[in-house]
Amino acid sequence: MTQQQRRTDAIGVTHPVADFAQAPRIVSLVPSITELLCDLGLAPWIVGRTGFCIHPAALVTSIAKVGGTKDVNIGKLRALAPTHLIVNIDENEKPTVEALASFVPHVIVTHPRSPDDNLDLFRLLGSIFGREEAAELLCTQFNRAKATLRTGRPQRVLYCIWKDPWMTVTRDTYIARMLEQIGWQQWIALPENTDARYPVFSWSDQLAHEIDLVLLSSEPYRFTEAHVDSLEQQLGKPVLLVDGEMLSWYGSRAIAGMQYLDQLRQQA
Question: Considering the entire predicted model, what is its pTM?
């Protein structure tokens, strides 16, 4: 892969290397990427983040908030005069990003869809912001963590992200592909005429029969052990409360996520 290819984002835009003589001003609208930027040593140049960008706490508390991932305060963001904006296809609204692109010189679009896509993500941001060595170190750490994984007993799992209505994820998601690393296959039976990647579902005896294990994510809905106990009694199937950040946050968090997967495999 050439240096130019490394600086090409998810929609095919190739970005120039940031000019640190002019002090880049970075706004991240993606919580996991804010964490990644900090791990690449770029915290001093991050001028804006969402309220969901909470890691690493010691570094992000001094960075201005510009709203949420979907309800961005455009006025606040404009006032920060960013040179670079980092967004994600799943997490941010396209009309909002298009509006921001009218005054932000460089909009970097990301879209990791599988764990291995983290390698390109590390190199994309490392190449644009002159942190190639740090990016390669993250690649090495990721590959080592992945290499230690062991495939457990095959499980048909249902990963829940919301309640009222109940929502899950399809197999065409980063979360499902993380679970595949230990041989767990996400259940999904989509209604006809829908391409939703985060569909609504209803509990039924048939559904309970088709799955081996239910996973209740700690985010975006705050499932608790009380939900675990209730569902286990209702379904007669094992239910685990899982750390949603470890399974859905790409970027540098995915390194710890690989280790977390191995813990889940042993727990189940």
Answer: 0.94
Q: How far apart are CA 85 and CA 74, in angstroms?
A: 12
Do 87 and 162 fall within a single domain?
A: no
- Burial of 213-226, coded b for 16+ CB within 10 Å and e otherwise, reads bbbbbbbebebeee
**Structural domain range at position 254:** 155-267
Question: Can you tell me the distance from the alpha carbon of 86 to that of 224, in angstroms, rounded to the nearest whole number?
Answer: 32
Looking at 7-131, list the stretches that DSSP marks H as alpha helix, in order from N- to C-terminal side.
31-39, 57-60, 74-79, 94-100, 117-128
Same domain, 138 and 13: yes
**pLDDT tens string 73-132:** 999 999 999 999 999 999 999 999 999 999 999 999 999 999 999 999 999 999 999 999
Q: Quick one: 102 and 192 in the same domain?
A: no
What length is written for the chain? 268
- Within this chain, do residues 122 and 23 fall inside the same structural domain, yes or no? yes
Q: Are residues 109 and 182 in the same domain?
A: no
Phi then psi dihedrals of residue 160, to 5 deg: -105, 130
Among 55, 60, 51, 111, which residue's Cα sits nearest to residue 86?
Answer: 111
The residue among 71, 15, 18 whose CA lies nearest residue 46 is 18
Q: Whose CA is closest to 10, among 95, 87, 96, 91?
A: 87
Average pLDDT, the chain: 95
Point out the domain boundary residue: 98, 114, 146. Answer: 146
Domain count, the chain: 2
Residue with tokens 């009694």, as numbered in its chain: 233
